[in-house]
Amino acid sequence: MFEKLKSLHVATAERAILQLFDEERAGDFSIRADDLLFDYSKTNIDAAARDGLIELLNSRGVAAKRAAMFSGEKINETEGRAVLHTALRNLDGEAVKVDGQDVMPGIQDTLSRMETFASALRGGEILGAGGDRFTDVVNIGIGGSDLGPAMVYLALAPYANGPRCHFVSNVDGAHISDILVGLNPATTLVIVASKTFTTIETMTNAQKARAWIVASLGETAAGAHFVALSTAADHTAAFGIAPERVFGFEDWVGGRYSVWGPIGLSLMLAIGADDFRQFLAGAQAMDRHFQHAPWAENIPAMLALVGIWHNQICGHATRAVLPYEQRLTRLPAYLQQLEMESNGKRVAMDGTDLPYESGPVVWGEPGTNGQHAFYQLIHQGTRVIPCEFMVAQEGHEAELADQHHLLVANCLAQSEALMRGRTLAEATEIMSQKGLSGDEIERQARHRVFPGNRPSTTLVYPKLTPFVLGQIIAMYEHRVFVEGVVLGLNSFDQWGVELGKELALALSPVLAGSEDGADKDGSTRMLVAHLKR
Ligand code: F6P
Asked: Which end of the chain is more exposed for a tag (fewer CB within 10 A), N or C?
């Protein structure tokens, strides 16, 4: 199937996307579902390519794998785990079984404990050791224990009416120092968020935060100022966090898929339990759409197929995510983990080498900022970078509707410019109108040519509410899932992060001077020596 699709691509590679547009194309090559509009008509995908892509998807057993995921089968084969982040937003509570056990009662119980805690803290019933209300929350976590809540907290700023949240992730002491310096220990709650409760960055920062609380409020105060979010009750107890301050989850929630459960506690404290439920409800709506819409009308599935078309078929190795929404400033970073940690694999589920590229490099920045930075390369560089635009119909700032119009105009103008381009003849005409003549016209005109025919998709959503954001994140999760199944790899493990962790542990004593590092290569030894000087 891949070969057939590649031939289709080769046969149509020189065709101008613009030529594909008749009266029907925009409607035919877009999907409207649950108030979302996903437009992929500005790509070189035609009916034959779409049919071929859907045939590919069917041939890879995506429907069966989807059913297996939702029903709690252990599809994460290299870790022997089910993949059930969808159960965290299964608000109806319909049974979902792992090893014959319904996981829903446990999930509902934890959600309701989180809600009780959040309401009491927001309402001033849960106080610091000295009787002060909590004004600030510091979430200490990294990767999936940071990116989800940190991204969503910024995205839902208009809904935040609880304590201020801060996120510490980096082991670089600058991170925790810069955050704690502006805070008062007496009014600060520290959340230690770590699925494993062993991650070196998180545990190091958590110890520093503990020392900061104890230095100011005394040893007995620590309990009132700490909460843990983890699957590892033994480790949270060893850290000294009381069981009633631990919100647990199970190993079938992957770190990068965990914002829907306890890892989202900081968010719930900020926006309140009702809006947090709206966030879950949006994700659940997307789950249903993904489960039931036919493939050609299924947004995550078609988003995945567009991604495969661009990466594995056309050979465009990277993908730019360009939200025209300032509050989605951390979405590209969030998607980098979601997509690259999930599908950045070089072997298939059965351990054989992948016969095609793994998932794409994902990067981006909100528009319009990116326009004044890296869009130059997207428009005129030698590489083709498929772009994924996103924009809201409406902003939250009703009084600034004129700015929203400008924002939308910029978003649409970029995808139009990428597709349309500017020919040498058009550029020459512009130069001659400016009064240039002779060879200088062509020389100057060539710098002003835009090759065009550069593909993009656009997602339009009503407004960035908790519900809509839930839909959008779940949409990306399912897109990553479909891409992973089509590529035949395991999207739910992350062995590629382990080697660096092991070597860092081994290097630490070398840098501290207690080991000589004689077994290290020449470059590493030189760098260590220079750093120690
Ligand atoms: O090192 C990668 C990773 O395991 C991610 O998958 C995960 O999100 C992150 O580290 C944090 O892990 P934990 O929540 O266990 O601290």
From this structure: C
Question: How many of the other CB atoms lie within 10 Å of CB of 512?
Answer: 9
Q: What is the pLDDT of residues 226-264, one digit of tens each?
A: 999 999 999 999 999 999 999 999 999 999 999 999 999
Task: Yes or no: say if 370 and 364 are a contact pair by the CB < 8 Å rule.
Answer: yes
Structure tokens at 83: 């993949």
How many whole angstroms from 199 Cα to the centroid of ligand 1? 7
Under DSSP, is residue 487 helix (H, G, I), strand (E, B) or coil? helix
Contact 281, 467 (CB under 8 A): yes
> Ligand 1 site: residues with CB under 6 angstroms?
142-145, 194-196, 199, 202, 255-256, 341, 494, 497
Q: Which pairing describes strands 101-102 and 318-324: parallel, antiparallel, or unpaired? A: unpaired
Q: Which of 79, 85, 145, 492 to mutate to test the pocket of ligand 1 (most atoms within 8 A of CB)?
A: 145
> Structure tokens of 384?
């083709």
Q: Which two tokens stand for residue 199?
A: 């991650």
Residue 209 scores a pLDDT above 90 = yes
CA 143 to ligand 1 centroid distance, Å: 5
CB of 153 closer than 8 Å to CB of 267: yes
DSSP state of 176: H
The pTM assigned to this predicted structure is 0.97
Closest CA to 475 of 497, 495, 456, 457: 457
- Torsion of Cα atoms, 458 then 463 then 466 then 470, to 10°: -20
If you take atom 3 of ligand 1, which residue's CA is the nearest one? 143
Q: How far apart are CA 199 and CA 140, in angstroms?
A: 11
Name the H helices within 384-497. Answer: 401-420, 424-433, 439-447, 466-487
Going by alpha carbons, the residue nearest to atom 1 of ligand 1 is 497
Cα 192 to middle of ligand 1, angstroms: 13
Q: Specify whether the backbone of 35 is left (phi greater than 0), alpha (psi in -120 to 50) or beta.
A: left
Per-residue buried b or exposed e for 294-304, using 16+ beta carbons within 10 Å of the residue's own CB: ebeebbbbbbb
Query: Measuring CA to CA, which residue among 395, 400, 333 is closest to residue 366?
Result: 333
At position 293, the amino acid (one-letter code) is A
Residue 448: pLDDT band by 50, 70, 90 thresholds? very high
Catalytic residues: 341, 372, 501
